[in-house]
Amino acid sequence: MTKAKTNPGRFFEDYKVGQVIRHAVPRTVSGGERAMYHALYPARGALYSSDEFARVAGLPSAPIDDLAAFHVVFGKTVPDVSLNAVANLGYAEGRWLKPVYPGDTLRSESEVIGLKENSNGKSGVVYVRTTGLNQYDHKVMEYVRWVMVRKGDLAAPAPEAVVPALAKVVDPKDLVVPTGLDFSNYDFTLAGEPHRLGDYQIGEKIDHVDGVTIEEAEHMIATRLWQNTAKVHFDATFREDGKRLIYGGHVISMARALSFNGLANAQMIVALNGGAHANPCFAGDTVKAWSEVLDVAETAAPGVGAIRLRLVATKQGAAPFAYKGEDGKYAPEVLLDLDYWALMPV
Amino acid sequence: MTKAKTNPGRFFEDYKVGQVIRHAVPRTVSGGERAMYHALYPARGALYSSDEFARVAGLPSAPIDDLAAFHVVFGKTVPDVSLNAVANLGYAEGRWLKPVYPGDTLRSESEVIGLKENSNGKSGVVYVRTTGLNQYDHKVMEYVRWVMVRKGDLAAPAPEAVVPALAKVVDPKDLVVPTGLDFSNYDFTLAGEPHRLGDYQIGEKIDHVDGVTIEEAEHMIATRLWQNTAKVHFDATFREDGKRLIYGGHVISMARALSFNGLANAQMIVALNGGAHANPCFAGDTVKAWSEVLDVAETAAPGVGAIRLRLVATKQGAAPFAYKGEDGKYAPEVLLDLDYWALMPV
Amino acid sequence: MTKAKTNPGRFFEDYKVGQVIRHAVPRTVSGGERAMYHALYPARGALYSSDEFARVAGLPSAPIDDLAAFHVVFGKTVPDVSLNAVANLGYAEGRWLKPVYPGDTLRSESEVIGLKENSNGKSGVVYVRTTGLNQYDHKVMEYVRWVMVRKGDLAAPAPEAVVPALAKVVDPKDLVVPTGLDFSNYDFTLAGEPHRLGDYQIGEKIDHVDGVTIEEAEHMIATRLWQNTAKVHFDATFREDGKRLIYGGHVISMARALSFNGLANAQMIVALNGGAHANPCFAGDTVKAWSEVLDVAETAAPGVGAIRLRLVATKQGAAPFAYKGEDGKYAPEVLLDLDYWALMPV
C-alpha cells in the first residue's frame, strides 16, 4: 500500500530561483469551451460571442474569452505551484499576447523568479512568472503570481531571499493589441452599449447592478473545465467547516461578466496589473460587481483605446461601492479587487 | 458615483409603434451549444442528434435544436423588451424559417407592432414581432410576443392604442419546411418510435410519463447560455421570497424534450401558435408533460406531414392531464400551455 | 387518454436469445461533448485533452474520452434493455475497438446472448452483447452486460436457460491498440507523471487521494448528455425516499478521472474485464478512489504496454483501501469495483 505515485505537490524548499517548470496537461480548446464559458458566466462581450463581429473588428473569428484562456493557463500551474499553498497573495505584470481560437492547444510554463522564507520558518513566498503557449510555441499570455507555500521539511535551510521588482501597473506602451484589431467599424448597437472610451472619466465608478447567486455545481464545473483540481474546491470533507472554497478565478470571471452592464465595450482584457482575493467565496453567496475607471490610454491600432479599470466583486450585505475600511483593510463583503487594462473603441 | 452607464431597460413610454430595435449581442453557435442543450434537457430528436440521420432526411447535417435557436433569438430581446416587464403575456405567429447549423451567427431584431396602456396608467402592453437573422441576413425565425411593461414616467401620455390582429393558429399552408427535407427514407427504429402521423388521432392525449426535478444550477446555466440576463433568474436576493424564478423557456425546453416519449417523430418545430406560462416554476419542482393532438396537415415535402400539438407542463401534485378548472383558469400545478406545429413522417 | 404511445420498455418475456435490437437515437459527438466531459469530471488524460499530444502519439487528433464513448453507446441501450431492470448485475468482455473523434456519429446494437428466469418466476436475467458503431459501420466498442428484468406477464413461460460462457478477463492478446499508436516519444512531463509501466508492481495499491462531492445538477447533466433517460436518475418523486439514484456510469467516470493522480499515464482504456456497482451513490456523497495493479502485458505497438487495474470508488467514511469484508461482501462505503485494461508507456 502506497501513496508514493500520487503528486504530493512541491513544498517551499523544493523551489529554486531560475527553475523552469513545464506544467502538465496540454489542452485543445473548442467551441465547447466557449459555450460552457458563456453558460457558466453571463459573458456577453460581442467580440467573443460572434465570429461576424470579430471579423468586422479585424480578427479571423471570435477568440475564446480572454479569461477562459487565463484559466486554462492558470489551471495547469496548480499541481506544481499551489497544491501546498496557504494563500494566493497576488498577481502582477499579466499580459495577453495573442488571442486563443478554437482549435488552439495551450500549455503552461512557470519560472521561479523569487523566494522569501517567512520569519516563522514554516512557510515562504514563491514568485513565479507563468507563460501560456500555443501549439506554435507562441506566447499567448504571461503573468506573475506569488503564493505562500508550506515547508515540507522545517529543517530545510532558508534560501537567499529574492524578491522581484514588479511593476505596479503594466505600462500602456507595453500592451499588446492583437494583430489586425480595428474598431473603426465598431457597431455599438450590436455590442450592447453606446459608451466609447471618451465617455468614461477617470475616477468614475459604475455599479454593475446585476447579481448572481452561486451554486456548488457551477463553480465545480467551471473549475474542472480549467483542469484546476485543488481539493479544497471539490471535497466537502476536506475543510473542517464542510465548505468548498470557490476558485478565485470563478469570482474573477463572474465579476468581469457582470461588468458587461456598463462596460459592454471594454472588449478585450490585455493586461492584469494586480489583484487580490479579498475574502473567500462560498456557494450561496450572491456576487455583484462595481468598477472604477483608473486610467485611459491610446494604442496604435485604428479606433482602439485602452481603459484601466478596478473591478471589485462583492457579496450580499455589501454597502454600495464597498471597498476598504479606514484601516485600509477590505470590507468583509468584498471578494475581489482586480486591476486590469481592456481595449475599448475610442 | 453613477449608475448612468448601465442599461435601465425601456419603459412603456419608450416604445413607439413602428420602431425597430436591433438587439445586442450576436452569437455564433457551435457543437458546444448542441452538447449543452442535450445535457440540460433530455432532448433526443434524432434529426438534431445525428448528422447522419439529418443527411438521410435531406439536410446537410444536424441543425441546432429548434428551441435552442429560439432561445438564442429570444435571449437577445430581453434587455430591450422585458427588463421592466411585469408579465410575459403571450406568443403568436411564431415560425421557424431556416434551420440553424453550427457555425451560424444569430442576431435579433424586433419591431413594435402594438401598444396599449393599461387603465391604471401605470403600465401597458407592448407587442413586438421579433426576427432572428443569420450571418447572411436570412431570417431563421420570427414570432410575436407581448409583455406588460411598467411606465417609468407615470405622467407620460398614453399612446394611441394599437392592438395587432394576430392569427390564433399559423395556417398550415404558411409552415416553412426546410429546403430538401425528405422523410421518405425515415428510419423509425433509429428515431426511437414507430408512430407516424397517421397513427395520431385529433383529440388524442399522451402522458409523457417521465419527470425531471429541476436544480438551480441547471436553469441558470441554461438561461445564461442564451445570454438572457434577467435578474430574477439569477439573484436570490432580488425577490422578497428569496426564490429565483425559472426562465419560462427552460420549462418549454424541458417539456418538449420530455415529450420525446410518445412523440419521438414530431421532429422539427416549425410554428409556435401560442403559449402561456401558466404558473411560475422554481428549483425543486418536478416537471412532467402531456400533449394533445390538435390538428394534422400535409406539406409539399416528400413524406413530411405536420402535427399541431398542445404541450402542457405540470409540476408535482398535478392530476393526470391537469389543465384548466371549470372557471377556465389553469390548475395551480400547470406551468406551461404551448400550442405548436411540428413536422412528422406521414 | 392513452399512454399507449410511450415506451413501456421490454419485460423479461420480450427477449429471445439471438434477437438483435437496434437502439435509437444516433449521436454525433463534437468538441462540445469533450468540453462537458472535462467539466463534469476531473479528467486530465493528456491524450484526450490535447490534439498535439495525441499527434505525437500517432493519432490524428485527441479522441473523445474512452468512457464518454462508452456512455454514449450505453445510454442508447437503456430504453431497450434496462427500463424495467431491477438490477444491473455485471459487465464482461468489454473492448474499445476504435477511437471516437469529434464529428463521429455513434449508434448501438445489442444481441441477446443469454436468458435465465429466476426461481421466483417474477424476473429473469438478460445477457446482451452491445456493440457501438460509427458512421462507417465500424465497431468502436463492444461489451457484455447482464441485468435482472421484471416479467410483465407472470404467466409467460420460462425460456430455456442460456447462460453464456464469459471470459473473466479479456486476454491481453485480444486488446485492440489503436492503429498508429506509438508511445516512443511520450512526454511524461506534459502527461503529468513520470511513472511508466515498469514502475508499477503487480499487487501495488494506489490511493488517489482526491475527493469530489457530488451535486444533483452535475450527475443529471452528465446522464442526460449520454441520452440515458432512466427515470430514477432525474425524478425526485419516483423513489419513495425522494432520492435520485446516480447513474453508475457517473461514478465510473468520476473514479477513473480521480485515478489520474497516480495513474496519469494509464492513458487509454482498452478493455473492461468486469465491474460491479457495489452500493448506490447519491448527491452529497464524496467520491474517492483507489486502484490495484492486477497485471501487466506487452502489446505490439511501439512503446505501448498494457496495465490491468482494479478501480474502486468509495464514499465518505470508507476505511483506507476499503473493499470487501470477511464475508466477501462489499463494505457499505464501496460504490464501484471495476476491472479494466489500459494502455501505458513502457
UniProtKB/TrEMBL annotation, chains A, B, C:
Coiled coil: none annotated. CDD domains: FkbR2 (cd03451). InterPro entries: HotDog_dom_sf, MC_hydratase, MCH/BMMD, Thiol_ester_hydratase_Rv0216. It comes from the Bacteria. GO terms for molecular function: lyase activity. This is Uncharacterized protein. It comes from Rhodobacter xanthinilyticus. The lineage of its organism: Bacteria, Pseudomonadati, Pseudomonadota, Alphaproteobacteria, Rhodobacterales.
